[in-house]
Task: structure prediction
Amino acid sequence: MFAKENKLFTGKMLTILLMAALSLIIAGCSITGAADSNEAAQPNAAADKNTKTIETVIEKVFNAPDETFRELNTAVMEAQKSLKDQEEFDAFMETPLYKDLEAYKEDEYAQHFTDNGYESFLSTGSAFSYSWYDGTFKMNPSDIEITQSENHSALYHFTFRVNYENEDGKTNNYLFEGKANIPQEGKIAEIGFEDKDGLQQEISGE
Result:
């Protein structure tokens, strides 16, 4: 009888031990799965932020003209006409008029770029490129599609369309393509836009 009870006891103990071991294995798998999920979520979050950054810059450039920039820039250009030499220009750069223009540029774009990327974006004229044109017109971007490169995680390709209305109320739609290099999260080092359908020629009347 004792032998039979010992066998039952041993059987129960084995069952309990097996169940405990199985629970540990399942818990381990769950923890590993959660860790893997978190690791996968981090790159996705960065890509989402980068995509949003590109989209924001496209909207700022192509929602044009920027009347605030036009007003500030026109005032600065008029004031510069009276400057006679580099010394006067250096002094002019310290005036509230010039600083207001520079501060506006920085407020609009600096947060979306690396330091060098921001300076390059301004120097190439890309930042307010469609606000330099005279005349009465309206334009805005639509159908923005952004894709991260499979081979280079910092490289993004994009396409979008620009809806343009001239001063006579005539409207048209123009295709753009481009790419951006984002080496750190949410900070563009380089971005370029390719006018596929000739919007610049339409605005300039060429």
In short: DSSP finds six helices and four strands in the chain. The mean pLDDT is 85. The first strand starts at residue 138 and ends at 148.
